[in-house]
Design a protein that fits this description.
Distance between the termini: 36 Å
Radius of gyration: 21 Å
Structural class: alpha/beta
Strand order of the largest sheet: 3-2-1-4-5-7-6
Number of helices: 13
Helix content: 40-55%
Order of helices and strands: HHHHHHEHEHEHEHEHHHEE
């Protein structure tokens, strides 16, 4: 993942505002921009213009950026095609997860599927043996597919002997309905409960102590300050917290900051590329991009902290979060890369209660 120096952040901000205010052409404003980051700078200015309802000018910047992109990162090109599908409007086409289909397709993309399999294997290695029937919470359960694969793996490697109780938590009623069907089919003898709502709103409804809290791509939907508050609430609900997350700098940077745009350019550029590289009907791929990934990206780039929908954090920040909230009761049992390339990473974190 690439980062900007403090001097570059300042330069990007000044150059972008000058370009916007003076109606400069894209290639007239990059004298002080690192050559390999010029497409990312085009994306930054384009996103500023698009968020300010200047979509026609934004398109010029995205098109220029697309002409300069190599095969590693293509978010300018994806932004151009997205705007065309949205009739030139830089909008959130949907509320993410209202329809499970785009997310379910995303989980089947080879890059994401492989990362999830690595997460399952890594957690299977780091968890202790559980002698009693396992009790597990799946926070932000999605369609329940990851949970089922995870539990089957624990049974296969004999970390657990039986699955006693499963609690599914998700804000999407459609996801909960789908997850319950999938989980009941896989574990018909287990006690399966559901809670519909965002974890920050429903954590107090969770009763008793669970062995494991599975947190896959779910806890990044709240900013740092809310993560801190609600992890304090969750720490008494489980003995082990298993986190699968995207390593990205999308939480603490403020709206319209260069570092936020660069992070989105890299992480969402790579995820969207993985979706389009997957052999699938174009209509389904476009739905996954527009109604899931670009919906999130538009929110991050156009809405301030506290309102936007996503706040992916850097891996180091997750450690700071757990150290601050779980204190001396827990320690890090695993920290592994589930997938990593030059611009995007998914990681596994396991914090377990001290015995």
């Amino acid at each position: 993942m690439l980062f900007l120096s403090p001097q570059e952040k300042h330069q990007w901000t000044i150059s972008a505002q000058k370009a916007i205010n003076e109606h400069m052409a894209p290639r007239d404003s990059d004298l002080d921009i690192r050559t390999n980051l010029r497409p990312a700078f085009r994306f930054y200015v384009g996103a500023l213009l698009a968020a300010g309802s200047s979509e026609e000018r934004a398109m010029e910047w995205f098109v220029t950026g697309a002409q300069e992109e190599n095969t590693s990162l293509l978010l300018n090109a994806f932004a151009v095609s997205f705007l065309k599908r949205q009739r030139g409007r830089f909008i959130m086409p949907d509320v993410a997860f209202v329809d499970p289909a785009p997310y379910v397709h995303f989980t089947g993309v080879p890059t994401i599927k492989s990362a999830r399999q690595n997460f399952i294997r890594q957690c299977g290695e780091s968890l202790p043996d559980v002698a009693h029937p396992l009790r597990i919470i799946d926070v932000g359960c999605g369609d329940g597919g990851l949970l089922v694969d995870f539990l089957k793996h624990l049974l296969e490697v004999r970390k657990v002997g039986d699955i006693g109780e499963i609690l599914l938590v998700d804000a999407s009623p459609a996801m909960i309905e789908l997850a319950r069907k999938i989980v009941v089919a896989a574990f018909p003898r287990s006690v399966i409960g559901t809670i519909i709502g965002k974890i920050q709103d429903v954590a107090r409804q969770i009763e008793g102590l669970y062995d494991v809290a599975l947190m896959s791509l779910c806890y990044h939907h709240m900013p740092w300050e809310k993560k801190v508050r609600h992890m304090h609430e969750l720490k008494s609900k489980a003995d082990h917290f298993l986190v699968f997350e995207l390593d990205a700098n999308n939480d603490l940077p403020e709206l319209h900051s260069p570092e936020l745009a660069l992070s989105v350019y890299q992480s969402y550029g790579r995820m969207i590329d993985a979706v389009f590289a997957h052999d699938a009907p174009l209509e389904l791929a476009n739905a996954c991009v527009d109604r899931f990934l670009m919906t999130e990206a538009v929110s991050i780039l156009s809405q301030p902290r506290g309102i936007r929908t996503d706040y992916h954090m850097l891996r180091t920040q997750w450690h700071l979060l757990f150290q601050e909230t779980l204190s001396e009761d827990f320690s890090c049992w695993a920290d592994s890369a589930a997938y990593s390339d030059d611009f995007m990473s998914f990681f596994t974190l396991h914090y377990g209660r001290q015995s």
